[in-house]
Amino acid sequence: MPASEISATAVNDTAAADKFPVTDRVRQALDVTRRGVDELLPESEWTTKLARSEATGVPLRIKLGLDPTAPDIHLGHTVVLNKMRQLQDLGHQVIFLIGDFTSTIGDPSGRNTTRPPLSREQIEANATTYLNQANLVLDPGRTEVRYNSEWCDALGARGMIQLASRYTVARMMERDDFTKRFKAGTPISVHEFLYPLMQGYDSVALKADLELGGTDQKFNLLVGRALQSEYGQEPQCVLTMPLLEGLDGVEKMSKSKGNYIGITEPANTMFAKLLSISDVMMWRYFTLLSFLSEAEIAKLKAEVEGGRNPKDAKVLLAKEITTRFHSAAAADAAEADFNNRSKGGIPDEIPEVSLTGAPLGIGALLRSANLAASSSEGLRLIDGGGVRVDSVVISDKGLKLEAGTYVVQVGRRKFARVTLTA
């Protein structure tokens, strides 16, 4: 949506500012809003909304919609949830919208092919875990939970056609992924045009003042502004958050890329993964994931630049995140476990595996114990010096283990207590 159209829908900021003054509390709320964001559109309107809310005591309605397309949430998903929690703590009404209807369409954002829709059973199962996991970040007692099937199912065919009449094909084709697919001759199904319309209609139904999303959602969020104007509502503001890089520091955090940290992973795994991020990437994680103030983070960064060991800061981050999703005791235990492992020690709790076929080749054992994806990968790990049996580094790829019980380690984090029988 062109910037001129955003401006054209703006409220009269000067008159509103006279009526609702921008106080220190409003400026503080604006600072909280801005932290770590990619874009806040239009910021002047958001300032006006904050000032009005402060003056009248009426909380703003802040919407985040997630389609339950997978059963689990990773730390990358919590970037927008963290922002929701920050705004929730300012006293505003946050709305966690589960897109049980829009999931049946399939979000085309960032896609070069049509996204397959999910079955109702998949959506319901995923929605349950999404909500449970989102409640680890949001305050459930102050969160309004909605499902967009409430109003989308009620639209019916007539309502859907009337909604579609409020947005043009030309405007829809301004969307980058649609434009690229059209130029490349890649099919675009008509139902994909309905997705941004339905997401925008959610904002109408909820009378949202602000909608959050990732940078890939900007077009859809702006459609919400346009539709609210069409329906005679004050347009919502739009806040986009960056997409968090994964453990590799390059690609977006993703389960499919294997560079993710799941928020329901064991505390020891979560802690160790956080300590594996680079010293440079650590500060981006602090900004987007930590609840420390920006002043506290700046002070910590200055200490590191002044000679403090960066690992100290990384441990603080890992303990904060692990405490959030587990407990302070679990975070302390995870730190102790990590330190034990770094000294060559063995964790207190490791998987127990029973195998038959002794004597068994080391490559086959690693595969069968789920310590390597294949026997050949296990042998490559041995070449790299990354395999230990009972704390002894293995270099013989032809090693065969007799019947017995062994503690097998791959790298720093993978362990198994293997009981091998004939």
Description of the molecule:
- With 422 residues, the chain is of the alpha/beta class.
- It folds into three domains: 3-241, HUPs (Rossmann fold); 267-342, Tyrosyl-Transfer RNA Synthetase (Orthogonal Bundle), CATH 1.10.240; 352-421, Structural Genomics Hypothetical 15.5 Kd Protein In mrcA-pckA Intergenic Region, Chain A (Roll), CATH 3.10.290.10.
- Helix content is 48%, strand content 14%.
- Strands 1-6-5-2-3-4 form a six-stranded mixed sheet, sandwiched between helices.
- It is globular and about 75 Å long.
- The model is unreliable at 1-17 (pLDDT under 50).
- It comes from Piscinibacter gummiphilus.
- It catalyses: tRNA(Tyr) + L-tyrosine + ATP = L-tyrosyl-tRNA(Tyr) + AMP + diphosphate + H(+).
- InterPro entries: aa-tRNA-synth_I_CS, aa-tRNA-synth_Ic, Rossmann-like_a/b/a_fold, S4_RNA-bd_sf, Tyr-tRNA-ligase, Tyr-tRNA-ligase_bac-type, Tyr-tRNA-ligase_bac_2.
Secondary structure layout plus pairing:
Layout: H1 3-8, H2 13-19, H3 24-34, E1 39-41, H4 43-56, E2 61-66, H5 78-89, E3 93-98, H6 120-134, E4 143-147, H7 149-164, H8 169-172, H9 176-184, H10 190-206, E5 210-214, H11 218-230, E6 237-241, H12 267-275, H13 281-289, H14 294-305, H15 310-325, H16 328-342, E7 352-356, E8 360-361, H17 362-368, H18 375-383, E9 387-389, E10 392-393, E11 400-401, E12 404-410, E13 414-421
Parallel strand pairs: 2-3, 2-5, 3-4, 5-6, 7-13
Antiparallel strand pairs: 1-6, 8-11, 9-10, 9-12, 12-13
Helix pairs in contact: 2-4, 3-4, 7-10, 10-11, 12-15, 12-16, 13-15, 15-16, 17-18
